[in-house]
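Collaborator request, handled under Task 6.
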Amino acid sequence: MSITLNFELNDQDLAHFQEAAERSRKAAEGKSEQEIVDCAVGLLADAQKVHIPDFIKERLLRLDDMIAMVRDTGWALPDDDKQRVLSALTYFCDPNDVIPDHVEVLGFLDDAVMIELSMRELKHELDAYDDFCDYRANEASRRGVEPATLGRTDWLDGRRDELIERMHQRRERDIGGGYGRSSGYGGSGGYGAPGGSKSYTRSWRPGGFKFG
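Structure tokens returned to the collaborator:
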């Protein structure tokens, strides 16, 4: 038997997490891009060693996507956009997070909340990257090659440039509009998208952590 639990964070709750995120950013000052990514990768590795609820797994998979956006040579985010993603990842470099990760079942709950907030902040980046990965996978299949073997190619670069431009336009449009109604799961029916297909399979991307 399973049960459904819904909870709402009020302004005071959100302020608590935002303060924690700001402390983490200050603590991570001076860390290299690789060090920040390694912290987030380490969190995913630790999460695979314990039992965690599905709703947390879904958000950890989106953290994996944020890491992939930084590491994916085919996607090759412009520096300013990459810094936005790295800024979101710095929370996971803080050893003093809100709930210690070793706490059974709920140890990653605060991380899931922070990922959810980051997903909303990076909605358009995640949307664009999901579309890019789907395009790469479909084209790789059509051309008879493995997506993992592809770096920078003319046909990928053209689609990447289109998606980056769309991402910038949508982000500019939303400035000052708050989080809106989006959950940040992506507008293309991707993994965990509200109303999206349950059978959706994430296209290949660097990392690709699996949760059993």
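The cover message to the collaborator said: "Residues 33 and 51 are 29 Å apart (CA to CA). Confidence is low (pLDDT under 50) at residues 178-199. Please let us know whether this matches your experimental observations."
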